[in-house]
């Protein structure tokens, strides 16, 4: 789990600004899920990406939110024109897929980015 | 889509006693059920999981049971200790074999477990 890196850990933005959240998966993992956790709530799926591909973005708000996972570098979740309701913890989870058949389904969570919108 | 319900939302247990948390799911295609423990301000950590081809799994003081017919699964913690205090989440997903696919987790709303010394 320590291998999944997220930065920044805490991010403060004013309404209308942009937020960029980064996730570096564990070494060898090419699949990333992003989840959002509102205060006092469970985690909600946002998007599932493989390298250079968005596989499922059914959990992403239709506007202002976008995600990418380039061939090189971390996965990025981008929130444009943030509003107070975007304040939450954003977690990415790294997934080994077929690379580790014995741990097929396990998703390894990063430490999260706590976004506060003022 | 999948919907996971979790009960209770809060649970207080005397140290040494057992704690049980229950979840139900809606999608009969779901076949993987992990449980996560989350301490305040920390990441969710997998504590135990179960696949639909088994009915029960145990790991020291933690056990999970699954009833596929009724579509519910439960977490059992025995001999509870103060360090068990945390929020626990159940989740469900669909494993696609032999090739993996989208295995997004649908989480329950969490149970705040407090162990009373």
Summarize the entry for a quick read.
With 118 residues, chain A is an all-beta fold. Chain A has strands spanning 5-7, 10-13, 19-24, 31-37, 43-50, 53-56, 65-68, 75-79, 88-95, 108-109, 113-117. Chain A has no helices and eleven strands.
Describe the 3D structure.
The complex is a heterodimer of chains A (118) and B (117). Chain A is 0% helix and 47% strand. Chain A has 118 residues and is mostly beta strands. Chain B is an all-beta fold.
Uncertain spans of chain A, ≥5 residues at pLDDT below 50?
A: none
Strand % of chain A is over 45%
Number of continuous helical runs of chain B: 0
Helix amount of chain B: under 10%
**Number of distinct beta strands of chain A:** 11
Which blocks of ≥5 consecutive residues of chain B have pLDDT under 50? none
Net shape of chain A: globular
> For this entry, what is the oligomeric state of its chains?
heterodimer
Shape assignment of chain B: globular
Beta-strand segment tally of chain B: 11
The mean pLDDT of chain B is 92
Q: What is the CA-atom radius of gyration of chain A, in angstroms?
A: 14 Å
Largest interface: A-B, 25 and 25 residues
Summarize the amount of helix of chain A as a percent range: under 10%
What does the radius of gyration of chain B come to? Answer: 14 Å
What pattern of helices and strands is seen along the backbone of chain A?
A: EEEEEEEEEEE
Backbone structural class of chain A: mainly beta
Largest sheet of chain A: 7 strands, mixed
Mean pLDDT of chain A: 90
Could you tell me how far the N terminus lies from the C terminus of chain B, measured between alpha carbons in angstroms? 41 Å
């Amino acid at each position: 789990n320590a291998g999944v890196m997220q930065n920044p850990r805490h991010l403060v933005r004013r309404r209308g600004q942009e937020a960029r959240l980064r996730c570096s998966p564990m070494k060898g993992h090419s699949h990333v899920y992003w989840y959002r956790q509102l205060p006092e709530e469970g985690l909600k799926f946002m998007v599932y990406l493989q390298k250079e591909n968005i596989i499922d973005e059914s959990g992403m708000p239709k506007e202002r939110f976008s995600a990418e996972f380039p061939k090189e570098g971390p996965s990025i979740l981008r929130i444009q024109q943030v509003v107070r309701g975007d304040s939450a913890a954003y977690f990415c989870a790294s997934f080994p897929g077929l690379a580790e058949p014995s741990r097929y389904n396990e998703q390894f969570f990063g430490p999260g980015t706590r976004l506060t919108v003022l | 889509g999948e919907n996971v319900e979790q009960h209770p939302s809060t649970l207080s247990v005397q140290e040494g006693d057992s704690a049980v948390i229950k979840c139900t799911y809606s999608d009969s295609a779901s076949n993987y059920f992990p449980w996560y423990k989350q301490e305040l301000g920390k990441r969710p950590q997998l504590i135990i999981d179960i696949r639909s081809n088994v009915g029960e799994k145990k790991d020291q003081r933690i056990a999970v049971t699954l009833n596929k017919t009724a579509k519910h699964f439960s977490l059992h913690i025995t001999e509870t200790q103060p360090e068990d205090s945390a929020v626990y989440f159940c989740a469900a997903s669909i494993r696609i074999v032999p090739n993996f696919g989208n295995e997004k987790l649908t989480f329950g709303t969490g149970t705040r477990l407090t162990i009373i010394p």
